[in-house]
């Protein structure tokens, strides 16, 4: 043995060098390796981890509704409406993606969303609260009559009087939201040709969320990307209700694009914009960077619906094609076209970031960015949302109608009816996991590089260390050999033992 370099040293040196090269390679390609592992876990394939979370989210979801009680309705229009916010009326939401179908020919996934809501007793108020609000059925009927002739308008005016319609209604929260209420005008509408009702399906009751519970139609039929090829993101909208553009708007506004909310781009910067498709708005919006912070040990960038996001066109000319006629006020979105022509406008709660004239039209709007903004707080490297606050206010458009007595003197305004909020925060377990993943991404390359250095050092030491170290290593080697020769000598001798065993075996 003495006199030639023992084989174990060559093994150590060779193995060390090989591992060092491997580790160095991993260090250089780390972000690529990491991203492909992450992408495979995020892709919407039947076996991926994110699919399991996506198809039936385990995080508790709450849907909170604030209703505005109109306390001086009797004095309208002589007095400006005084609105008092009530709520939140809180509902636990269960959400499931159903009819999930993969289309491998074009890497897409189609599905519907089934949601159900359960009243939560932590609500601030009861579903039996008596609330006075705008009579939306009458307001819609009057709005629809705006291009009619004089006699038809007079006819509507008499009809409204005959059915005892007023500008306001008093109903329970239950009726206004999910249960709906009956109204003679709805029965009348059922007997009218579809052209006069804007193609809206005939309904027997009206409620803002009537027939939405357990409905497959609330969010519509979605087709999104799977994100299983390099550089592509899952969950980006391709088609909505079988259309690949929005039929309600012309030009650039008809473009259907963006994330449907669950999957966001990675490596976000302060200049990045989040492009989102929001079915409630029937459109794609851009969200802009607002601030940064830390939550549950994770850094985040907060992207918000900003002044320009659903402006008319005073701030952002590209929005003109969304106006659908007169570009009325800034910071509100005319969703009439996608709500069967009902005079509905969406804004941020309390007209936050909207034209100040809207706030001046009613009493009781107290916009507060803390409580009323719509944002995604996103871990910027991984593109994973840590907190989401989705908030909208529904408003009804009113304008004077000289031939309809009830609406002769109403001001031109947007009447706030209610606003909704959905907030989701990452739970601390997932946050911890993400911290680890984030750490792996940030430090993985460094760790591999360090390992490469260490292994290279070992390899170098084994082949060319100074004689006295060599001697010591030899002595150590021999000592160990004396203790338990056959175990340590894993070179020639061990092979021999194996041969002997093999020879013995057949006997
Ligand atoms: C809403 O306002 C009306 C009229 O002022 C009032 O009678 C009613 O009690 C209010 N509802 C609630 C729940 O406060
Ligand atoms: C979609 O899913 C619902 C509920 O799971 C089911 O009743 C319906 O038959 C499905 N439709 C199709 C086309 O698969
Ligand atoms: C993908 O292919 C399926 C049919 O296999 C089709 O129904 C679907 O509309 C296609 N989706 C897109 C976005 O082209
Ligand atoms: C929605 O439907 C479920 C039954 O599937 C019911 O238990 C629940 O009370 C309904 N929610 C509302 C708000 O009506
Ligand atoms: C509950 O509602 C009342 C008004 O009805 C309001 O004064 C109070 O601040 C609300 N409380 C919470 C916690 O929101
Ligand atoms: C609800 O409030 C309105 C206005 O205050 C009142 O006229 C009506 O009688 C009340 N309805 C019920 C069921 O209490
Ligand atoms: C809202 O849009 C609809 C259709 O897109 C249009 O008819 C209506 O005039 C618009 N409303 C206002 C106030 O501009």
Automatic annotation (TrEMBL):
<keyword id="KW-0472">Membrane</keyword>
<keyword id="KW-1003">Cell membrane</keyword>
<comment type="similarity">
    <text>Belongs to the CD36 family.</text>
</comment>
<keyword id="KW-0325">Glycoprotein</keyword>
<protein>
    <recommendedName>
        <fullName>Protein peste</fullName>
    </recommendedName>
</protein>
<dbReference type="InterPro" id="IPR002159">
    <property type="entry name" value="CD36_fam"/>
</dbReference>
<dbReference type="Pfam" id="PF01130">
    <property type="entry name" value="CD36"/>
</dbReference>
<keyword id="KW-0812">Transmembrane</keyword>
<keyword id="KW-1133">Transmembrane helix</keyword>
């Amino acid at each position: 043995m003495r006199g030639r370099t023992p084989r174990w040293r060559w093994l150590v040196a060779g193995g060390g060098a090989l591992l060092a090269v491997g580790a160095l390679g991993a260090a250089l390609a780390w972000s690529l390796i990491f991203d492909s592992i992450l992408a495979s876990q995020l892709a919407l394939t039947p076996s991926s981890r994110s699919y399991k979370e996506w198809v039936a989210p385990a995080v508790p979801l709450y849907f909170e509704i604030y209703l505005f009680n109109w306390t001086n309705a009797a004095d309208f229009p002589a007095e400006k409406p005084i609105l008092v916010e009530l709520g939140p009326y809180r509902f636990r939401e269960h959400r499931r993606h159903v009819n999930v179908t993969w289309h491998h020919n074009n890497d897409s996934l189609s599905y519907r969303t089934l949601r159900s809501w359960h009243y939560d007793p932590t609500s601030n108020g009861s579903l039996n609260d008596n609330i006075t609000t705008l009579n939306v059925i009458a307001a819609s009927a009057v709005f629809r009559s705006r291009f009619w002739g004089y006699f038809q308008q007079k006819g509507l005016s008499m009809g409204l009087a005959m059915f005892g319609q007023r500008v306001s209604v008093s109903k329970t929260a239950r009726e206004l939201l999910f249960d709906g209420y009956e109204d003679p005008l709805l029965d009348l509408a059922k007997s009218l040709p579809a052209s006069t009702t804007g193609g809206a399906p005939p309904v027997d009751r009206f409620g803002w969320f009537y027939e939405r519970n357990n409905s497959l139609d609330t969010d519509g039929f979605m087709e999104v990307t799977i994100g299983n090829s390099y550089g592509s993101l899952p969950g980006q909208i391709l088609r909505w209700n079988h259309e690949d553009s929005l039929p309600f708007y012309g030009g650039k506004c008809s473009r259907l694009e963006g994330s449907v909310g669950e999957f966001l781009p990675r490596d976000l910067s302060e200049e990045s914009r989040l492009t989102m498709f929001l079915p409630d708005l029937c459109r794609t919006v851009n969200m802009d960077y607002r601030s940064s912070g830390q939550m549950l040990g994770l850094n985040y960038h907060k992207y918000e619906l900003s002044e320009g996001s659903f402006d008319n066109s005073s701030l952002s000319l590209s929005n003109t094609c969304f106006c659908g006629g007169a570009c009325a006020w800034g910071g509100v979105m005319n969703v009439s076209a996608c709500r069967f022509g009902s005079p509905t406008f969406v804004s941020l709660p309390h007209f936050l970031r909207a034209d100040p004239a809207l706030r001046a039209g009613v009493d009781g709007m107290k916009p507060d960015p803390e409580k009323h903004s719509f944002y995604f707080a996103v871990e910027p490297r991984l593109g994973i949302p840590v907190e989401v606050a989705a908030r909208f206010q529904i408003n009804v458009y009113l304008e004077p109608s000289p031939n309809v007595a009830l609406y002769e003197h109403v001001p031109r305004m947007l009447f706030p009816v209610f606003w909704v909020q959905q907030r989701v925060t990452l739970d601390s377990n997932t946050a911890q996991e993400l911290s680890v993943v984030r750490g792996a991404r940030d430090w993985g390359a460094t760790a591999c590089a360090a390992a490469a250095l260490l292994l290279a050092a070992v390899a170098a030491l084994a082949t060319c260390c100074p004689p006295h170290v060599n001697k010591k290593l030899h002595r150590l080697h021999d000592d160990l050999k004396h203790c338990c020769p056959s175990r340590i000598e894993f070179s020639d001798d061990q092979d021999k033992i194996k041969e002997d065993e093999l020879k013995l075996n057949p006997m």
